């Protein structure tokens, strides 16, 4: 009798343990939900295209650099900007200056690092002195002598002389500086090695053509 009771108790315990295990194994695991996209990620995707609405005073129009005069350390004009070289990241790397010749005849290109050129907003002393008389006449009364002061007065309808602009203000209004300056002389640039375009170097090897000008 005691053996039967013990066997029954053991069987009952075994069945209860099996049921408990079965219930544990069949309980579904909580669903793992992927995190919702953050607001920052969404804003980054939507706001990836950014636009500028105006030109700042310290920003210049790259196309206007071509043709700017380059002056040497003695304030004498030694050439003109023929091109600005930029890399794939948009950084200005070099200034190609046309030196020598007349009206482009006999001219050669010389390239200097962009950082070697000082971009100046004020007119050079030599040209400012040459035009000083006309500037004084127009700036005194603004009577239509073709100066900036008289032109501003005609636009505004005022007979008073327009306030003179500083070099920085004029450069900002035009979108480009007045000229560039290098710490070299014209002889230095004329004796410098000539600059060649990539297409010219390749055409010499018979593997390319010279660039279109």
From TrEMBL:
Residues 1-22 form the signal peptide. Residues 135-145 have a biased composition (Gly residues). Residues 127-187 are annotated as: Disordered. Residues 58-121 form the PRC-barrel domain. The keyword Transmembrane does not apply. Keywords: Signal. InterPro entries: PRC-brl_dom, PRC_barrel-like_sf. This is PRC-barrel domain-containing protein. It comes from Enterovirga aerilata.
